[in-house]
Write a structure and sequence with these properties.
Blueprint: H1 9-12, H2 19-27, H3 33-53, H4 61-82, H5 88-104, H6 110-133, H7 136-154
Helix pairs in contact: 3-5, 3-6, 4-5, 5-6, 5-7
Length: 189
């Protein structure tokens, strides 16, 4: 267990009386530098990939920002309730959200694919590390966070479907939800 300071109960729990102190404790892994380094590197990698993929998204940028804020609020509120620390829900949910969003857009360009692949390697590496050194509840939380990102992305309308002619505006059918089985996406012209 010495590989993971985050795995020690005293490092995971943020018990300060002040809400602000508890939030800072949550976001800083209660001061464990190893977990801070791992998780913030993965978070930055995911955010860069998400930003690279954003211009090809069918969803407005404000939706992406709202989802990122939601993932942070979800993480902080969960940790305030159960006494945990960390940001791994944010980067796991962000990774699956950005990946599904690119899938909805039809995997538009090589730059997006490479950025998401690099982020996926970082996420799988970090998740794999925590499978090895952390309690099972951490792995379950990571899997649930990946599912959260998928569910949140599928809840956002995908206005990318257009008529076959280039330059046409978004068709009424383009406002439907981007759901499994709704057919392949049509590409932006």
């Amino acid at each position: 267990q010495t590989l993971c300071l985050h795995c020690m109960p005293e490092a995971m729990e943020c018990k300060s009386a002040s809400v602000v102190s508890r939030v800072l404790c949550i976001l800083s892994y209660n001061g464990t530098s190893q977990d801070v380094a791992i998780n913030y590197v993965v978070l930055v990698t995911v955010l860069v990939a998400w930003a690279v993929a954003l211009p090809t998204s069918g969803a407005p940028a404000r939706w992406h920002l709202a989802c990122l804020v939601f993932f942070f609020l979800f993480q902080v509120c969960l940790c305030l309730v159960v006494g945990c620390s960390g940001i791994s829900i944010v980067w796991n949910a962000g990774m699956s959200f950005a990946t599904v969003d690119s899938c909805c857009a039809g995997w538009p360009n090589i730059r997006t694919r490479v950025a998401l692949a690099v982020a996926a390697i970082a996420v799988v590496g970090a998740d794999g590390f925590y499978v090895w050194v952390a309690p099972m509840v951490t792995t379950i939380a990571h899997l649930c966070a990946l599912l959260l990102g998928v569910v949140v992305r599928y809840a956002i309308p995908c206005p990318w479907a257009k008529d076959e002619r280039p330059g046409d505006s978004v068709s009424p059918s383009g406002a439907e939800l981007c759901l499994f089985g709704s057919g392949p996406p049509r590409y932006r012209s």
